[in-house]
Specification:
37% of the residues lie in helices and 15% in strands. It is α/β, with parallel strands linked by helices and 393 residues long. It has a seven-stranded mixed sheet, with helices on both faces. A four-stranded antiparallel sheet has the order 11-12-15-14. Strands 1-13 form a two-stranded parallel ribbon. Helix 2 packs antiparallel against helix 8 and helix 9 runs parallel beside helix 11. The longest helix is centred in the C-terminal third of the chain and has 28 residues. The termini are far apart.
Length: 393
């Protein structure tokens, strides 16, 4: 008899965004004539940069000619793409060896499998509210989750408690869902905590491109000692609009050693066993996205999303609702009005204004009574959502 993984029974019955998408599909089916404003799932709405499109076309032409045809890709990524990532960091003053960079199909994939480097008995600290995959992937693996609560009192940016007992910790800055971002001094406290305990930080840098404040680090490797305790996972999904194109990377420094074993070498072994590499076309697209030309073009899209955030935060200030995010981040996190709970406010917004957001409780118990808006919608939809929000409240 085949035995299934018993730890799946620890999961909620449905993934947060699956539930939201099901609601959206039902609304579109039942009310096809109504304008639905989607501020829930954080998907981009603006097209890829011209430099990226041109690179995709050139790569496709390469595949049509014998002399430039490419088959299987190296499991760890092509040298040109690894160098493009290293150069991207170097232009910001952060040194990464291309050999420490592993090209992936996006942050979500590696966040889901990076736990394979660590034994089941490791306790996992999660800053809550948290992106659900941090919790769910470790529940599936049978690990114990240790919640580090974030709230209004600490700006949703908790620092390591003195009594925290954990061997792994997930950090996301700027944070999803709260949009809060650690300063250099705050993040250094986590690095020092990890090094003092031989813990490992799994640092999700998916939203680093939205940071404009020089006091907020864009990479954990800007901090002394991070190369000895941190794995950084990043993506072009939001930086360059690659949500439908899928490309990212994971950095595992060679200085990261635990139990006299190189985690870098372990990840090489993992990837060469479990991956056939990322498509040549996508890696050429990523190379173009990280070029100065590509970054300048995608930067115009980021400015649109930042302007969307300003529209939403202005509306929240008029309404007197406390919020975080909207600066250095593409999410706005605010308190539900009139003491409402998250899913009640979710239903209220849909019923009264046809606005779809994300209940904070979907990111953990610390998020109850709070709500997330994504700033990735179109400017017209964002303005209309701010108008409708003011009208109903």
């Amino acid at each position: 008899m085949t035995h299934i993984n018993p730890y799946y029974s620890r999961l909620k019955t449905s993934y947060l965004f699956y539930r939201i998408n099901q609601t959206v599909d039902a609304l579109r089916r039942d009310h096809p004539q109504e304008r639905l404003l989607l501020l829930g799932v954080g998907d981009v709405t603006l097209p890829l940069a011209p430099a990226v499109i041109a690179a995709l076309h050139r790569a496709a032409e390469d595949q049509a000619k014998q002399e430039s045809f490419q088959g299987y890709m190296p499991e760890l990524g092509k040298d040109f793409m690894k160098q493009a990532v290293a150069d991207y960091y170097a232009r910001r003053g952060t040194k990464l060896d291309p050999a420490e960079i592993f090209i992936s199909y996006g942050a979500g994939d590696d966040l889901g499998v990076i736990g394979g480097l660590f034994a089941q008995e490791n306790r996992v600290a999660v800053i809550e509210p948290a992106y659900p995959a941090y919790v769910d992937t470790n529940l599936m693996a049978g690990r114990t989750i240790v919640s580090v609560p974030g709230g209004e009192d600490n700006g949703f940016l908790p620092l390591p408690p003195e009594d925290l007992e954990a061997e792994l910790v997930y950090l996301c800055s700027p944070n999803n869902p709260t949009g809060a971002a650690y300063t250099r001094a705050q993040l250094q406290q986590w690095v020092d905590w990890a090094n003092a305990r031989d813990a490992v930080i799994l640092f999700d840098a998916a939203y680093e491109a939205f940071i404009t404040d020089p006091a907020v680090p864009r990479s954990i490797y800007e901090l002394p000692g991070a190369e000895r305790c941190a794995i950084e996972i990043a993506s072009l999904s939001k930086t360059a609009g690659f949500t439908g194109t899928r490309l990212g990377w994971t950095a595992v420094p060679q200085a990261l050693i635990r139990e006299e074993t190189s985690l870098h070498d372990m990840w090489v072994r993992n990837r060469t066993t479990c991956s056939n590499g990322v498509s040549y076309l996508l890696q050429r697209a990523g190379e173009a996205a990280l070029s100065p030309e590509g970054l300048a073009q995608s930067g115009k899209n980021l400015q649109v999303y930042r302007a969307n955030a300003k529209i939403l935060t202005d509306a929240l200030e008029v309404l007197g609702l406390p919020y975080t995010g909207g600066k250095n981040a593409p999410y706005v996190w605010f308190r539900c009005p009139k003491g409402m709970q998250g899913w009640d406010f979710f239903d209220f917004l849909i019923d009264r204004a046809r606005i779809v957001g994300t209940p904070g409780v979907g990111f953990g118990p610390c998020g109850e009574g709070w709500f997330r808006f994504s700033c990735f919608g179109t400017p017209a939809d964002t303005r209309e959502a701010a108008h409708r929000l003011r009208e109903i409240l």
